[in-house]
Specification:
elongated, 2 domains, 145 residues, four-stranded antiparallel sheet
Length: 145
Protein backbone atom coordinates (compact mmCIF):
# COMPACT_ATOMS: atom_id res chain seq x y z
CA UNK A 1 0.00 0.00 0.00
CA UNK A 2 2.87 2.39 0.65
CA UNK A 3 4.25 2.22 -2.90
CA UNK A 4 1.49 4.31 -4.61
CA UNK A 5 1.67 6.93 -1.84
CA UNK A 6 5.45 7.29 -2.27
CA UNK A 7 5.08 7.45 -6.03
CA UNK A 8 2.47 10.21 -5.76
CA UNK A 9 4.67 12.26 -3.44
CA UNK A 10 7.70 11.76 -5.71
CA UNK A 11 5.63 12.81 -8.74
CA UNK A 12 4.45 15.95 -6.91
CA UNK A 13 8.05 16.86 -6.01
CA UNK A 14 9.15 16.40 -9.63
CA UNK A 15 6.30 18.62 -10.87
CA UNK A 16 7.28 21.41 -8.45
CA UNK A 17 10.94 21.17 -9.50
CA UNK A 18 10.00 21.17 -13.19
CA UNK A 19 7.74 24.21 -12.67
CA UNK A 20 10.85 26.23 -11.79
CA UNK A 21 11.83 26.02 -15.45
CA UNK A 22 8.59 27.62 -16.67
CA UNK A 23 9.79 31.24 -16.35
CA UNK A 24 12.76 30.41 -18.57
CA UNK A 25 10.48 28.83 -21.18
CA UNK A 26 8.08 31.77 -21.02
CA UNK A 27 10.98 34.19 -21.52
CA UNK A 28 12.17 32.22 -24.55
CA UNK A 29 8.77 32.49 -26.24
CA UNK A 30 8.61 36.22 -25.44
CA UNK A 31 5.78 36.30 -22.92
CA UNK A 32 5.74 37.76 -19.43
CA UNK A 33 6.01 35.48 -16.45
CA UNK A 34 2.57 34.80 -15.04
CA UNK A 35 2.48 31.12 -14.10
CA UNK A 36 5.09 30.79 -11.35
CA UNK A 37 5.16 34.09 -9.42
CA UNK A 38 7.28 32.77 -6.56
CA UNK A 39 10.41 33.01 -8.72
CA UNK A 40 9.77 36.64 -9.66
CA UNK A 41 8.99 37.72 -6.13
CA UNK A 42 11.64 35.90 -4.14
CA UNK A 43 14.81 35.62 -6.14
CA UNK A 44 14.40 38.40 -8.66
CA UNK A 45 12.43 40.98 -6.70
CA UNK A 46 15.26 43.54 -6.66
CA UNK A 47 17.40 42.34 -9.55
CA UNK A 48 19.38 44.99 -11.38
CA UNK A 49 19.92 45.80 -15.03
CA UNK A 50 23.19 44.15 -16.05
CA UNK A 51 24.17 47.23 -18.08
CA UNK A 52 24.36 49.36 -14.94
CA UNK A 53 27.19 49.02 -12.42
CA UNK A 54 26.49 47.46 -9.00
CA UNK A 55 25.50 50.08 -6.46
CA UNK A 56 24.51 50.26 -2.81
CA UNK A 57 23.49 53.04 -0.45
CA UNK A 58 24.47 53.23 3.21
CA UNK A 59 21.94 55.17 5.27
CA UNK A 60 22.86 56.45 8.71
CA UNK A 61 20.57 58.33 11.10
CA UNK A 62 22.45 60.59 13.51
CA UNK A 63 20.83 61.99 16.66
CA UNK A 64 21.96 65.38 18.03
CA UNK A 65 21.35 66.40 21.63
CA UNK A 66 20.80 69.87 23.05
CA UNK A 67 24.41 69.76 24.34
CA UNK A 68 25.67 69.16 20.79
CA UNK A 69 26.57 65.49 21.27
CA UNK A 70 26.02 63.31 18.18
CA UNK A 71 25.72 59.55 17.81
CA UNK A 72 24.70 57.16 15.08
CA UNK A 73 21.36 55.55 15.86
CA UNK A 74 21.02 51.88 14.94
CA UNK A 75 18.35 49.20 15.14
CA UNK A 76 19.87 47.76 18.32
CA UNK A 77 19.27 51.10 20.10
CA UNK A 78 15.53 50.47 20.01
CA UNK A 79 15.46 46.67 19.87
CA UNK A 80 14.56 46.12 16.22
CA UNK A 81 15.99 44.08 13.38
CA UNK A 82 17.74 45.93 10.56
CA UNK A 83 14.83 45.34 8.18
CA UNK A 84 12.18 46.58 10.62
CA UNK A 85 14.31 49.63 11.42
CA UNK A 86 14.67 50.35 7.70
CA UNK A 87 10.93 49.93 7.03
CA UNK A 88 9.66 51.89 10.04
CA UNK A 89 12.15 54.76 10.20
CA UNK A 90 14.76 55.04 7.42
CA UNK A 91 12.49 54.69 4.38
CA UNK A 92 9.84 57.14 5.64
CA UNK A 93 12.53 59.68 6.63
CA UNK A 94 14.12 59.39 3.16
CA UNK A 95 10.68 60.20 1.72
CA UNK A 96 10.38 63.33 3.90
CA UNK A 97 8.19 62.07 6.75
CA UNK A 98 8.98 64.07 9.92
CA UNK A 99 6.70 61.78 11.95
CA UNK A 100 9.14 58.91 11.51
CA UNK A 101 11.96 61.01 13.01
CA UNK A 102 9.75 62.02 15.94
CA UNK A 103 8.73 58.41 16.53
CA UNK A 104 12.38 57.31 16.43
CA UNK A 105 13.28 59.87 19.10
CA UNK A 106 10.37 58.70 21.28
CA UNK A 107 11.70 55.14 21.09
CA UNK A 108 15.21 56.16 22.16
CA UNK A 109 15.69 56.05 25.91
CA UNK A 110 18.22 58.82 26.62
CA UNK A 111 18.79 61.19 29.52
CA UNK A 112 19.63 64.04 27.14
CA UNK A 113 17.10 65.93 25.03
CA UNK A 114 17.38 65.11 21.32
CA UNK A 115 16.81 68.21 19.21
CA UNK A 116 17.67 66.92 15.75
CA UNK A 117 17.80 63.77 13.66
CA UNK A 118 19.99 63.90 10.58
CA UNK A 119 19.72 61.18 7.92
CA UNK A 120 23.06 60.88 6.13
CA UNK A 121 23.54 58.65 3.09
CA UNK A 122 26.42 57.56 0.92
CA UNK A 123 26.11 55.73 -2.39
CA UNK A 124 28.88 53.37 -3.44
CA UNK A 125 29.24 52.36 -7.09
CA UNK A 126 31.63 49.74 -8.46
CA UNK A 127 33.21 50.97 -11.70
CA UNK A 128 36.02 49.72 -13.91
CA UNK A 129 38.42 52.11 -12.18
CA UNK A 130 37.40 51.19 -8.62
CA UNK A 131 34.87 52.10 -5.95
CA UNK A 132 33.22 55.51 -6.28
CA UNK A 133 31.67 57.09 -3.18
CA UNK A 134 28.99 59.76 -3.56
CA UNK A 135 27.84 61.59 -0.44
CA UNK A 136 24.27 62.87 -0.58
CA UNK A 137 23.20 66.01 1.28
CA UNK A 138 21.74 64.96 4.65
CA UNK A 139 18.03 65.23 5.39
CA UNK A 140 17.66 67.13 8.67
CA UNK A 141 14.66 66.90 11.00
CA UNK A 142 14.66 69.52 13.76
CA UNK A 143 12.48 68.47 16.66
CA UNK A 144 10.40 70.74 18.88
CA UNK A 145 11.41 70.83 22.54
Amino acid sequence: MQKPKHAAISLLILIVIAAHGLPVLQKLVGSNQTFWPIMAWGMYKKSRDSDKPPQTTKKRPVAVTSQGREWEVGPSDIGLSYYAFERLYITPMRKGDPGAAQQLVRQLKRDETIIEVRLESETYTITRTGLVKEVTAPIVYRLAN
